[in-house]
Design goal:
By secondary structure, this protein is α/β, with parallel strands linked by helices. Helices cover 27% and strands 13% of the residues. A hairpin with a 6-residue loop joins β1 and β2.
Length: 181
């Protein structure tokens, strides 16, 4: 018998690169990471390679990447503060093919406008990329802002969901803008 502390993992190929999924022994997903992800996970000694707990996740992710409007129905167990958990729960409510802003997420969790940076920090610490759709959060001005998995992945995920992209990206010229190069 394995303890609940045993971490199971598997890797799944996807159009945005390999996905590393981890789960507790009871099958609750604890993370979904991509290569190069800020704060992402990598396989650790003692983890158990086992695709079994990930069958439903693999099926739902395959449907998602095939362009189906999937609402992920999977057991998730991300560890975080009460505030982060509230923010992550608010992410779960952002529908497929839509976007929201950091300010709107702050309002949903009852945080003040001054707490938008804290909301951004909680979103950036989301350990369950794609499953908990932090890629659907954009700047108040409609620009794409940071994404732990990289802005190129964020653009690809939004495009997959039918969100009109490209949109302005902070730090990059807007599409069609004239510039050198």
């Amino acid at each position: 018998m394995h303890s609940l502390l045993t971490t199971h993992w598997t890797a799944i190929d996807s159009p945005v690169g390999p996905l590393l999924l981890t789960a507790a022994a009871d099958g609750a997903l604890t993370s979904l990471s991509v290569p190069g992800q800020k704060g992402g996970r990598s396989v650790q000694e003692g983890w158990r390679s086992d695709p079994g707990p990930f069958r439903a996740a693999a099926e739902q992710l395959a449907a998602y990447f095939a362009g189906e409007p999937v609402v992920f129905r999977l057991p998730l167990r991300a560890e975080g503060t009460v505030f982060r958990t509230k923010v992550w729960d608010a992410l779960d409510a952002v529908p497929y093919g839509t976007t929201t802003t950091y300010g709107e997420i702050a309002a949903r969790v009852g945080a003040s406008r001054a707490a938008v940076r804290a909301v951004g920090g909680a979103i950036g610490a989301n350990p369950l990329l794609i499953l908990r759709p932090c890629h659907r959060v954009i700047g108040a001005d409609g620009s794409l802002t940071g994404y732990a998995g990289g802005l190129d992945r964020k653009i690809r995920l939004l495009a997959l969901e039918g969100v009109p992209v490209p949109v302005p990206v902070r730090g990059r010229p807007a599409p069609g803008a004239r510039g050198s190069g």
